[in-house]
Prior knowledge:
The protein is of the alpha/beta class. 33% of the residues lie in helices and 17% in strands. The protein has one domain (11-324): Alpha-Beta Barrel (TIM Barrel), CATH 3.20.20. It has a twelve-stranded mixed sheet. α1 runs parallel beside α2 and α6 (169-178) crosses α8 (205-216). Iron/sulfur cluster binds next to loops.
Amino acid sequence: MQDQFRRPINYLRISVTDRCNLRCIYCMPPEGVKSIKHEEILSIEEIIKAVKAGVRIGIKKIRLTGGEPLVRGGIIDLVGSLNNIPEIDDIAITTNGILLGEMVGTLKRAGLNRVNISLDTMKPERFKRITRGGNLDLVWKGINAALNAELEPVKINTVAIRGFNDDELVDLARLTLDHPLHIRFIELMPIGSSQAWARGKFIASSEVKEKIEGALGNLIAEKTIHGNGPALYTRLPGARGTIGFISAVSNHFCAGCNRLRLTSTGQLRPCLFNHREIELKQALRSGAGLEELTEIFRKAIVSKPVGHDLDKAWQEDDRVMSQIGG
Ligand code: SAM
Ligand code: SF4
């Protein structure tokens, strides 16, 4: 189905949990998100029912995110059930990678197609600092396991942060020379509890690109790498992997937006950067049939805004990224 601005909507990002086994400084407060009662979170069966309604208006691609999707009980069953819905042709996960090494084989067998792994630094001490305690070795194990499992393309998400990893951006880009990794540099967003921390740490994609080109030579524009995202891809000459830029703050990519989000507590959210949400959980829990649920999806698509105004939207928002599904 197309929205009011003729954008075809075929991609649903689902936050399967608001919880996480890390506490990244830019994403969560030290104590984690204010705890939402277990019964507020959609069950696996409710998520599947929601997707079955979504496919009726044209959803074909799913990304499971959070929070950390791999800490969600039943995640393997969820992937398996989504894989059994004939209209769904792509199932991806965004993960911090901590549990990926041990779970990747089972996930792939259940039907997972692709994985994005978050990695902001290659230095163990820094990783510990930005994630408030994480073990970088486990993330490398996860990345290697994803490559060995041929879950292609394996994408790496790196948030560029001034004064934290700006001296590593070139080294991260260099990884693509010898490895079939697709590294995407993401602009730091001034979100929720991290707004004060983020002040002054923003680096625009254009600056990251300049740094990389200054050190490693010109980047060649690349056609889109398989996926549904807004990254602009480039490649170093002769490199096995690619380098992408996701400029959510400096350069709106709303004109090509094809997505809806389903929050962990069961609301459809037409735009990450706009607090408007459409209630789905109540309908799911009051026994609504597929047609009624589909109608709620239609309503969400029709209410998708033409674009975002990042500064204003976040200040009014009482949700953090992990609940909405980053
Ligand atoms: N836990 C998983 C992970 O870390 O990949 C999935 C959820 S996480 C919210 C999804 C992505 O959002 C991660 O790549 C993370 O770096 C990014 N993210 C979180 N907060 C952000 C912020 N303030 N600005 C930019 N990206 C952010
Ligand atoms: Fe957890 Fe991902 Fe947020 Fe880090 S970015 S705290 S890993 S949800």
